[in-house]
Amino acid sequence: MDDSVYRDLLGITEEIEGLLALDGYDDRLTPLVARRQEIFRSLVDVPLAKEYVLLIKRIRATEDKCMALTREKMAAIQGDLLAMTKSKRAVAAYGKHV
After folding, report:
1. Residue 49 gets which letter from DSSP?
2. Which residue, of 27, 38, 55, 85, has the fewest CB within 10 Å?
3. Would you give the distance in Å from CA 45 to the centre of its chain?
4. What span, in angstroms and rounded, lies between the C-alpha atoms of 65 and 17?
């Protein structure tokens, strides 16, 4: 059995990581995530062999990077939302002349 399934999974995961570093990636991200889900569904039939361990570790490391990028983006969005909320409260309290 070849390792093409794991290599495909690694390639898609790395592509997702690259997109997460950009802004305005949503339309390209959705099909990649769907493809990744399809590959995971097909992994049920793929035997797990020791030679795939390095690929799986690389996939896992890339997933961790993706999660870190996502957390950073979420924190930035939450900060922006907080700033908007504070701004709206200030306008409500003091008017637009503040």
Report:
1. -
2. 27
3. 26
4. 7
Distance CA 57, CA 61 (A): 6
Q: Is 81 left (phi over 0), alpha (psi -120 to 50) or beta?
A: alpha
CA proximity to 59, closest of 21, 15, 91, 27: 15
Q: Which of 42, 47, 39 is nearest to 13 (CA)?
A: 39
Tokens of 5: 């399934």
Under 8 Å between Cβ of 36 and 63:
no
The predicted model scores a pTM of 0.72
Cβ 35 vs Cβ 12: under 8 Å:
yes
| DSSP element (H, E) containing 97 | none
For residue 5, count CB atoms less than 10 angstroms from its CB and return exposed for 0-12, middle for 13-18, buried for 19 or more. Answer: middle
